[in-house]
Write a structure and sequence with these properties.
Elements lengths: L1 H7 L3 E2 L1 H12 L10 E3 L2 E3 L1 H12 L9 E2 L2 H6 L5 H14 L4 H11 L10 H4 L2 H9 L8 E6 L5 H11 L3 E4 L13 H10 L3 E4 L16 H14 L5 H12 L3 E6 L9 H12 L3 E3 L1
Parallel strand pairs: 5-8, 5-9, 6-7, 6-8
Antiparallel strand pairs: 1-4, 2-3
Helix pairs in contact: 2-6, 12-13
């Protein structure tokens, strides 16, 4: 789809224009191609840029800041499903005459949420239009305690869930903050979260060693693991728990994260329930 979109708009687009067209192509679709976060130039997709790097490695795009098809990329277009071109052609027919500030302004006024962190909004919008954008900012009041998984979601979807909930601190409770899934290893996740104003905190001492996770074939196996975790790990983590309790009691909104989407199969649930007990704040699953 990225190749089809680029070809439809001439095979060579600057980074900002390409991302704006991609946003217009994706937002509102029942099965959207990409999710987006409110970033410094408006709606931005980390996953799209990860895919761009893959296309560069395959020799289909030029290795440059812009989005530019190579000769090999052009030769590949004939193998792409025509449905992608149909969507892209419809987009081009409607918005192909726009670029630069006009395109930015269109996306900001149409989807103000994604302009919330823009560094250029004031240069392309009127004061009344800027006020509309500010009204799109999620309203979050008081302390909050959240649980969030990254199984089955992209980095962009994951980040937007927290941004909409007003999460201020992301607490990674994995023993080893590494993932084969794009975006969820420590450095990448920290940078992405902090780009949205969400502080990242890794507490490996609250994690479970991978060796303990073998042969988990039923909920009973998980329950046995978590009983052992509570008795032999969590009971010795008063210092770590106290620091998180202090954050919540001081009005911070924190989210504990790990991989498993099913809360009953992830140790973060044990930790966040203990924090809920200590703070009196109800846990919300994002």
């Amino acid at each position: 789809m990225l190749l089809a979109l680029l070809d439809t708009f001439g095979g060579d687009l600057n980074a900002v224009d390409f991302m704006k067209y991609l946003l217009l192509l994706s937002i509102g679709k029942a099965d959207a191609y990409y999710a987006f976060v409110p970033y410094k130039f408006g709606g931005f997709s980390y996953q799209a840029y990860a895919d761009k790097r893959s296309l560069i490695r395959k020799g289909l795009l030029e290795d440059c800041e812009a989005w530019k098809l190579t000769s090999l990329g052009r030769n590949t277009l004939g193998h792409i499903d025509l449905s992608y071109f149909q969507d892209c052609n419809a987009l081009h027919k409607r918005y192909g005459h726009l670029s630069g500030d006009e395109l930015v302004r269109l996306t900001y006024t149409t989807y103000p949420f994604y302009a919330l962190n823009s560094e250029i909004a004031s240069s392309v919008l009127s004061n009344s239009e800027l006020a509309v954008i500010e009204k799109a900012r999620p309203v979050s009041v008081g302390a909050g305690l959240f649980s969030i998984a990254y199984e089955g979601v992209s980095l962009d979807e994951y980040l937007v869930k927290m941004f909409r909930a007003g999460v201020e601190v992301l607490v990674d409770v994995r023993k080893n903050a590494f993932s084969m899934k794009y975006g969820f290893s420590k450095k990448t996740l920290q940078n992405a979260a902090e780009n949205l104003g969400i502080k990242y905190l890794h507490i490996p001492s609250l994690g479970i060693d991978n060796s303990m996770r073998k042969e988990l074939n039923s909920q009973a196996d998980y329950d046995e693991l978590f009983d052992d975790y509570k008795k032999n790990i969590l009971r010795y983590r008063d210092s770590e728990l106290d620091s998180l309790v202090k954050m919540v009691n001081n009005g911070r909104r924190i989210a504990l994260t790990c991989y498993e989407a099913n809360p009953s199969q992830c140790h973060r649930t044990i930790v966040v329930k203990q924090l809920s007990k200590l703070t009196g704040i109800e846990v919300q699953n994002l």
